[in-house]
Write a structure and sequence with these properties.
Helix content is 51%, strand content 16%. By secondary structure, it is of the alpha+beta class.
């Protein structure tokens, strides 16, 4: 940033401490203690002079130019960023159906992977079917894991 490394060449010879401050309305300005300056008039290099209680606030023409350059650069960045975002939106609008199919496929794949992981961890078994339908000690694996996680006593008893 140009302001951070900026040297006040016309003011360095004054021998007083000067701080660079920023305000959204005034942009960059200089602040110095009124007590250090005294009653002497300020040099002509200072413009837009304001005296507050114990401080003097002012600007120089070079400082105003740097503030304007920074504002122009910031506006240019915002304009270019807006243009890039609009072009990206325009490009992606034509790709929405493909993106939807991809996201749906990823979601199904995630669900299958989660079921497989749960089956391995919980040692689920695949049922066998024959001509007779008899269900012994059957539990729904997903409901069982949900009630087990909630800590219900009934699930703990069934689990043992």
């Amino acid at each position: 940033m140009a302001i951070a490394g900026w040297r006040l060449t016309d003011v360095d010879t004054l021998g007083i401490r000067i701080n660079v401050s920023w305000d959204p309305g005034r942009k960059y300005f200089l602040t110095m203690d009124d007590a250090e300056w005294g009653e002497e008039p300020l040099p002509e290099v200072f413009i837009n002079i304001r005296r507050n209680k114990k401080k003097i606030q002012c600007q120089t023409l070079d400082l105003k130019k740097l503030s304007q350059r920074q504002e122009d650069a910031s506006n240019e960045i915002i304009n270019r960023s807006d243009l890039v975002v609009r072009e990206l939106q325009k490009f992606l609008r034509g790709k929405v159906p493909q993106l939807f199919r991809i996201s749906e496929s990823v979601a199904v794949l995630d669900m299958i992977a989660s079921f497989a992981e749960s089956a391995i961890i919980s040692r689920w078994v695949r049922p066998t079917y024959s001509s007779t339908l008899a269900v012994h000690a059957a539990r729904h694996p997903i409901l069982d894991s949900v009630s087990w996680a909630s800590g219900s006593a009934r699930a703990k008893v069934r689990r043992q």
